[in-house]
Amino acid sequence: MFSPAGMFSKVLIANRGEIACRIARTLREMKVRSVAVCSEADRGAMHTRVSDEVRVIGPAEPRVSYLNVDALIAAAKASGAQAIHPGYGFLAENTAFASAVEDAGLTFIGPAPEQVRAMGDKRAARALAIEAGLPVVPGAEGGDGAALAREADRIGFPVIVKAALGGGGKGMRIVEDRGALDEALASAMRVAASAFGDGAVYLEKRLAHARHIEVQVAGDGTGEAIHLFERECSLQRRHQKVIEETPSPAVDEPLRARLTEAAVALARAIRYRGLGTVEFLLAPDGAFYFLEMNTRLQVEHPVTESITGLDLVQLQLEVAASGRLACRQADVTRRGHAIEARVYAEDPARNFLPQAGTAVKVRWPAAPDLRVDAGIESGDAVPVHYDPILAKVIVAGETRAEALERLVRALDESVVHGVTTNLPFLRALARAREVERGTIDTEWIERDFLAGFAALASAPAPELALAAAALGELFGLNGAPQGKAGRQRQSNVFAALGRWRHPGLD
Amino acid sequence: MRSEWRDGDRVRMVEVAAEGGGRYRVTVDGAPFGVTAARLADGRLSLTTDQGVTIAELTAAGARRFVRLGTLDFVLDRETGGAGGRKARGPRAPGGGLESPMPGVVTRVMVAVGELVEKGQPLVALEAMKMEHVIRAPRDGRIRSVAATAGQMVNGGVPLVEMDEETG
Question: Does B115 lie at the interface with A, CB-CB under 8 angstroms?
C-alpha cells in the first residue's frame, strides 16, 4: 500500500474550493493520487477537476455532504485511499471525525484526536497553555453566572464572553460594563448551546489595540516540535481575517524569539503531532498572551511557505506517513516578506452581504513573486451553501514595502466578474496609510477604516462606466447571445475531437 | 436608446444616440458627451472621449453588468423599467414587498399572514455562506403575504414577505 519511501499512494481530500485545489497540487507534486469529494452542488467544481478521482458524497447541504463522516470514510475506503486530509473548516477540527478516520484504519492528516479535542475546548486549551508556562489573557475559565460576574469584577471591564467550544470569533460578545454582563452571559450561553452543543462560556479581559500574531508550529507527536516563524493577522473584519503577512511589522527579533519559544513550548508539552498554529494577542506594551491553538492547516499558510520555501502540506503528509519531521529547526530559515489577501464572494458596498452565482469571468495576474490559490475558474458556480472564500492572492518581496506595492498591483489586476467580490475593499485596504505604516490592530478596520470605505464604495460610478454598460446593450454584450455562441463553439470542438478518439476507448 | 441602471442606491439614466462612423452621443443623468466606440474581442469596448481612449471590459450576469475601466470595477444592474420594473432593493415603499437581499436558503420564517408586526421585528432569516441575515420589518404593519418557506433556496431580489401599512 505504501510507496517505497513510506508515503501514501492515495489520499482523500475532505474539502472543497481553494484549499482542496491547494492540497491536490501538493499531492500531485509528491506523486500521490488524490481523491476529491463533492456535494451534488459541486459536481464539476474546480477541486474535482484538479484531482485524480472524484466521489460525490451527498446533497448540497454541508451537514449531509462535507460534514458527513460516514460518507467521507466510505468514499475513502471505496477509493482505496490510505489517508484523509481535512483541509480547514468543515471537519478539520472535529474530534469525532479524527477518531472515526483512525478507527476505520485510515490516517488522519492532522494531530491525534485527543489533541484536537483538548484544543477545541478553549478553556482546556487555556489550562494547557498555563501549564506549559505561556501567558494567557487575564480571564476566568469556569463556574456559573455569579462566579463569572465576580471574576469579571476582579479582572475589570470591558471583558469578552466566549463560547468554550467556539473559536475564530464565533459566539463572542464584548461586554463594556457590569450592567450588561448578566444579559450577555445568558445570551452567550444560549448561542453556545445551540451552535456548539455546549453552553459553557468563559471570560477574557478585552485588550484594547491588540494585534493578532500567530506562530506556525509543527510537531512529530513524540515531543519534538519546531516553529516556522510568525504571521500577523490583525487586519480583520468581524473577527474574520482579511489580509495576513509575515514577518509581522510589530515583532522584532527579541520578541520573535519569545513568541516562537512559547509556541514551541506548548507544542512540545502536548507532544503535538502535525501542523498547528498558536495564536497570541500582542498588547501595545509588548506583552503577549496565548489566545488559542488551531490544530490544522491555516487559510493563511501560503505566506509562511513563501518566506521559508517549505511546502506545509508536504510537511503534514510526511509527519502523518512517517511520524517524523522532515526538517530540523536549524534547517528553517526565512527570506523576505509575504502578504496574502483573501478574495471573498461578498458585496463590500452592501454591508458585505454574501454573494453567489456564476463567476462568468475570472482572471488572475501572473508575476515572479505572485501566487494565487483559487477555487474557481471562469464559468464556475459559486454556490450559496459554503464558505465565501474564492481565492487568495499572495505576494512576496524582499521588503514589506516591496511586497505591499506588489499586492496593490496584483489586486488591481485580479478580475472576478459575474459574482460580486470584496476586491474593491482589498484594493482600498492595501492602499491605506495605516496598512503601509503597519500601525494596525484587530479592530482598526471597523474602528477607523470602514466608514471611509463605505463613502468611497457608495460614490456614483463614473459616467464612462454607464456609457460602457449602455453601449454594451447596443453592441449585444449583454450575455445571452454570446453565451450561446460560446457553447456552440465548445461543442463543435468536442465534436471535432471525437473523430480522433480511439474506437476502443468509448 | 434609453436605459436605466441601478448604481448602488441610485438609478442612473443613460441615453445613447448613434451619430454614424462609430460616434455616439451619450447622455448620463442629463449630461451629454461624445464617445467613439468600437467593439473589441472578449467583451471589451474601446471608448474614445475628449479625455482619451479607455478600454472597458463588460461582463453580463443576468441583469447585472460588471464594468471594468482600467483597473477599477463597477457593478451596475439593468433596470427593466415600467410598472413591473424593480425600482429599489430591500424594503420598499409602503405596500411593497420585502425581498431577499442575497441568494441563500431561508432558515426561519417568523411571521404568518395577517400578523401585526412592529418596526424592526424579525420576519425571515436567510443563510448564505455560513452567515445568517435577518430581514426585519421596515415599519409597523400587517403581513399581507408570505412567500418564503423554511428550507427553500431563493435568489437575490425575490419577494419573501409583503406588508400592508397598519391603518387601525
Answer: no
pLDDT exceeds cutoff 50 at A481: no
Report whether pLDDT(A202) > 70: yes
Distance CA(A45)–CA(A54), nearest Å, equals 10
Query: B72: nearest CA in chain A?
Result: A412
Amino acid A125: pLDDT = 95
Asked if the model's pLDDT at residue B94 lies above 70, the reply is no
> Among candidates A416, A478, A251, which has minimal Cα distance to B77?
A478
A67 touches chain B (CB under 8 A): no
In A, minimum Cα distance to B53 occurs at A464
**Cβ separation B66–A417 shorter than 8 A:** yes
Average pLDDT over residues A77-87: 98
The predicted-structure confidence for A143-190, as pLDDT tens digits, reads as follows 778 888 888 999 999 999 988 887 666 678 889 999 888 888 888 888
Cβ <8 Å between B8 and A457: yes
| Nearest-angstrom CA–CA distance, A209 and A288 | 12
Q: Per the omega criterion (within 30 degrees of 0), is the bond before A348 cis?
A: no
Give which of A453, A455, A381 is closest to A418, Cα–Cα: A381
Amino acid type, B46: S
Please identify among residues 381-420 of chain A the ones whose CB lies closer than 8 Å to any CB of chain B. 384-388, 412-413, 415, 417-420
Res. A491: pLDDT tops 70: no
- The owner of cell 464558505 is A387
Q: Which residues of A touch B33 (CB under 8 A)?
A: 463, 467
φ/ψ (deg, to 5) at A414: -85, 130
Contact A418 B59 (CB under 8 A): yes
Instruction: Give the closest of B37, B61, B133 to A360, CB-based.
Output: B61
Bridge-partner residues for B134, per DSSP? B125
Is the per-residue pLDDT at B86 higher than 70?
no
pLDDT band (50, 70, 90) for residue B149: confident
Buried (b) or exposed (e) across B67-81, using 16+ Cβ within 10 A? Answer: bbbeeebbbbbbbee
Using alpha carbons only, what angle is made at residue A134 by residues A130 and A138, rounded to the nearest 5 degrees?
70
pLDDT digits (tens, 9 = 90+) for B127-141: 776 667 788 888 889
Task: Note whether A419 contacts B61, CB cutoff 8 Å.
Answer: yes
What is the rounded average pLDDT for all residues in chain B? Answer: 85
Pairing, β A201-205 against β A139-140: antiparallel
A–B CB contacts, 8 A cutoff, strictly below: 170
Give the max Cα distance, chain B: 63
Nearest by CB: B67 against A360, A420, A469:
A469
Over the stretch A270-284, which tens digit does the pLDDT of each residue have?
999 999 999 999 999
Q: Do A386 and B10 touch (CB under 8 A)?
A: no
B35/A467 Cβ within 8 A: yes
Residues in chain B closer than 8 A to A469 (CB atoms): 3, 5, 14, 58, 65, 67, 76, 78
Q: Which three cell numbers stand for residue A449?
A: 477604516
Q: With 90 as the cut, is the pLDDT of residue B103 above it?
A: no
Domains and CATH numbers, chain A: 10-109 (3.40.50.20), 138-205 (3.30.1490.20), 211-497 (3.30.470.20)
Residue B98 Cα, gap to closest chain A Cα (Å)? 16
Q: What is the DSSP letter of B42?
A: T
